[in-house]
Write a structure and sequence with these properties.
By secondary structure, this protein is α+β, with helices and mostly antiparallel strands. It is built from six helices and 13 strands. The longest helix is centred in the first third of the chain and has 26 residues.
Length: 292
């Protein structure tokens, strides 16, 4: 005769204890992942994907709170028999999320100071061939009064329209730090990230090409060339890139700026002024929705 094991029905207090252990397991895994990987953590990547693909701007702490609640609810599905098993169940939720959320790489855009110098005049214009052009001056009755001969550039042949390969957009970003002067800020701690929503590409800018003490504070000027990796047709025309920039600096609030690019030949300029803030950057990131 076979006997079936009968498990006692857990009490309300035991169930709440298991749920608490599951939520603590998720919270412990969140803290470890955040302090080990920083902005490459799984929750940050989930925040980026929700914003980029679904348009949901959800702050970090809301996603983290949702995962903690999920860890507590998981004990009703998995039915662990001990608090240790419930803790492991909660921690495994973040492990699954880390597997599903690959880290989005940030390409480093090298600085290009030539963008600030402007476009040089085409030397071929100075070497254009000249040809004689005759102009006859006639009176009202059609009698020739004079004849002039001018030296004029020869007409150019119209260039054929070809598809531009490896096109790039020159971008200039001016970051203003009010109240700061040269030497007050460690430039290595300033983070400038550029995102193109057309190609869903993320770029990190290196050192500024120019640093000046302006009337509004310290101005950091970044210049780089962004590759054109697609286009999007809107009511305003063909958009080659939809650029957004995020700037982080210690002692200042995280700030953003964005613009659409329809002409790759002109320099695209973005200006970002960061208000002063006493909130640490890591705390600001918890409450700042972001796309990249």
């Amino acid at each position: 005769m076979a006997f079936e094991e009968v498990r006692p029905h857990p009490s309300v207090g035991n169930t709440l204890g298991l749920a608490l252990a599951g939520s603590i397991g998720v919270a412990a895994a969140l803290v470890a992942d955040f302090f080990q990987k920083g902005q490459s953590s799984a929750v940050y990547q989930l925040e980026i994907y929700l914003s980029s693909y679904f348009g949901l701007e959800v702050p970090f702490y809301v996603i983290a709170l949702g995962l903690v609640v999920t860890g507590a609810a998981a004990v009703f599905v998995n039915e662990p028999v001990s608090k240790r098993a419930a803790f492991t169940t909660g921690a495994s939720i973040l492990a699954i999320l880390m597997t599903l959320m690959p880290v989005r790489e940030q390409d480093l855009l090298p600085a290009d100071p030539t963008i600030l110098e402007g476009e040089a005049e085409d030397p071929a214009i100075l070497d254009e061939p000249l040809e004689d052009a005759s102009i006859n001056v006639l009176s009202a009755d059609g009698v020739q009064q004079a004849s002039l001969t001018l030296r004029m550039p020869a007409p150019r042949a119209e260039p054929a329209l070809v598809q531009v390969q490896n096109a790039e957009i020159p971008v200039e970003i001016v970051v203003t730090l009010p109240g700061a002067r040269k030497g007050d800020i460690d430039l290595s701690s300033v983070l400038v990230v550029l995102y193109d929503s057309v190609s869903r590409s993320t770029y990190r800018l290196g050192s500024p090409v120019d640093i000046t003490d302006g009337a509004g504070g310290l101005e950091l000027i970044y210049a780089a060339r962004v590759p054109v990796r697609g286009s999007r047709t809107t009511a305003r025309g063909v958009v080659l890139a939809d650029l957004s920039v995020r700037v982080e600096a210690p002692g200042y609030r995280i700030s953003f700026a964005e613009t659409e690019v329809t002409d790759q030949s002109a320099v695209t300029r973005l200006s970002v002024s960061l208000p002063a803030s006493t909130t640490p950057l890591w705390m600001q990131r918890l409450n700042t929705p972001r796309k990249f």
